[in-house]
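HUMAN: Now follow token order:
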Amino acid sequence: MTATIPMNTTNGSRDAAASRELHAPEDHANGLPDAESNPNAAMLVRYDRAVRLLGLDAGLNRILSRPEYEITVSVPVEMDNGDVEVFTGYRVIHSTTRGPGKGGIRFDQQVSQDEVRALAAWMTWKCAVVNIPFGGAKGGIVCDPFALSQGELERLTRRYTSGIIHTLGPDSDVPAPDVNTNEQVMAWLLDTYSKHVGRHTPAVVTGKPIALGGSLGRREATGRGCLIVIEEALAHLGIPFRGARVAVQGFGKVGGIAAELLHTAGATVVAIGDRSGAMYRKDGIDIPSAVQWLKSHALLEGFPGADAITNDELLALDVEVLVPAAMENVITSRNAAAIRARIICEGANGPTTAAADPILDANGVFVIPDILANAGGVTVSYFEWVQNRAAYYWSEAEVNGRLDGVMRRAFGEVRRTADQHGCSMRTAAYVLGVNRVATARRFRGI
């Protein structure tokens, strides 16, 4: 295992990095400029915009722009056939200025250190935007979880947990589910940690099963948060919610639940998509039927209740609301001009590249940025952590009511910040989040 303390950079090098974002050499693997395909570069470009508006001093800038701690760990696992495979795992603690590091763990073949760095920083700003007392962290293992058996996944999770055990704790670093992980993975993590420290410690992880101290409402929280901010954005723009056309890319833990909640609330979900492709029906898709199809078939492909289209076509549909809830970098400088949605609600982390921002702004697209739009999950994770610490649990109605209040308050604060600075909602969210972390850092000192 290696632990890395990153070197600081000067203002000059940071500004130079930001200015290179639109002029980087091309990454031939995906046809995007290197900096546009790199989520950490996108995060830093948005961070720099906020720093300039805030007039943040150089020393504080150097502190906030870098992770506090990074771990790369080898994860040996005995496979079912007796072979030993060694996987690579990461955990990045971006900031503990406002509280313990908070952020999910993902299992995916595309996991990289730069991706985890960006996700950890986004968690810092996200927690600050909704004003909960957490910092930012993230983790991941480079693997194909769909190629692993349940036993292999358990051994992988437990060995990775042992590798990062010294960072974990209710007061230091609190993981949660993310891409391709779930409450079962969190249960294995909790059990491994509790065995190491010699006591049951439910507050070390959130998003765990209800039977182990998980919170009611946590599974739906990110999708419910998207519903709430979409309601706020439509009202702000004077667009009726009932009948508003919505396209959702990603039909999993975030997009699938958001689609269900939007459908139930009276919006018209005309398109849904997953990794197999997308489905479109002009008059609206029967979302409960699509959910049942997915449970039986694992993918949306072949769903009989709509016409097949591509995910690229889904992004360009003429709708009131587009919800990219899959992975990073799906809206880029290459396709941003084709977006016809009035509102983008970023259910995923980093679905829009920094180079796409000015194109969307110029076309009048109202973007609810990821660090606000998908903050429902970490908000209810905070509620779960609080309940674990108090050993007192709330009803689902209490959880949902508290979430509603937090999300609507945060939307209003970001919108007022945008009006104050004459900037986009994304830049305003960064200004709000960065300023809260910077204020706490000034009080704490160095």
